[in-house]
Q: What sequence folds into this?
């Protein structure tokens, strides 16, 4: 399969039982679909079965709506929870930032290099500092300051922008504000956040100074879907790097920045490539290696 081959992607989960894989693959075979890739996972503790199927889009002889309506009848018969995605669709992404630029720059660069298949439609910030980056790449920039007294009003403006730009995914690229439960519930599984891996041990404005003072030997980052509970949403990706006593707080921060960039990009890429299935507060993330 070539990288530019157009695909239909089904994400499926259900109670684990015999015959699901056979029944599903037979359903597609009977409709003359070529399954170009299939991945599956069984959670024996939860008794849950997960599957990701890629179909060759050239085999689509109906409308997409007809395909999904037809599959829905099959899904009801087997009590499947499912989603259908199409690789020729470019998701529309909004990036929210504060003053720190490293994750923003990295996402824009990866998008321009073709590593992230999406359209970065706008950048929203509670500070004006990063407008110069948006202007450099000709991305609409919206400065929406926020205080504890104006939080509800500011979030309403943000959601109006997300609706106006028809946004599919919100990326919090070091956006240093806590989103309200109302916001996260409306954008369930459509907001990806990045934070340093010290949480909850080192909370606050200067975690790398705290890490230095404690003499940590490992730092990292975690990317997750935002939820009502701060930093408790389903984890998508994590990574760590070993460090030693020779690194200053600034040195630790620089190492941390690099980990944050990589982890956030991997999480966003997995979402854009429809490789994530949510179950309870967990994610099943299928890799792309062939």
A:
């Amino acid at each position: 399969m070539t990288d530019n081959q157009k695909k239909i992607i089904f994400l499926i989960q259900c109670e684990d039982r015999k015959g699901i894989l056979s029944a599903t693959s037979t359903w597609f075979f009977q409709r003359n679909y070529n399954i170009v890739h299939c991945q599956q996972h069984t959670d024996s503790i939860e008794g849950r079965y997960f599957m990701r199927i890629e179909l060759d889009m050239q085999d689509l002889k109906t409308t997409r709506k007809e395909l999904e309506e037809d599959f829905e009848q099959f899904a009801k018969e087997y009590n499947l929870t499912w989603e259908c995605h199409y690789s020729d669709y470019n998701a529309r992404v909004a990036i929210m930032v504060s003053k720190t630029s490293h994750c923003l720059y990295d996402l824009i660069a990866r998008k321009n290099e073709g590593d992230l298949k999406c359209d970065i439609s706008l950048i929203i910030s509670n500070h004006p500092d990063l407008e110069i980056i948006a202007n450099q790449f000709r991305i609409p920039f919206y400065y929406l300051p926020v205080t504890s007294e104006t939080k509800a009003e500011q979030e309403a403006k943000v959601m109006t922008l997300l609706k106006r730009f028809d946004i599919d995914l919100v990326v919090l690229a070091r956006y240093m504000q806590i989103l309200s439960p109302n916001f996260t519930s409306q954008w369930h599984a459509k907001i990806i956040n990045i934070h340093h891996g010290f949480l909850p041990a080192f909370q606050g404005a200067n975690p790398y100074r705290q890490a230095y003072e404690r003499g940590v030997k490992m730092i990292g980052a975690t990317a997750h879907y935002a939820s009502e509970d701060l930093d408790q949403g389903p984890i998508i990706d994590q990574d760590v790097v070993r460090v030693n006593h020779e690194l200053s707080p600034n040195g630790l921060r620089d190492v941390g920045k690099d980990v944050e960039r990589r982890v956030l990009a991997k999480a966003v890429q997995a979402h854009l490539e429809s490789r994530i299935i949510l179950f309870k507060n967990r994610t099943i993330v299928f890799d792309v290696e062939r």
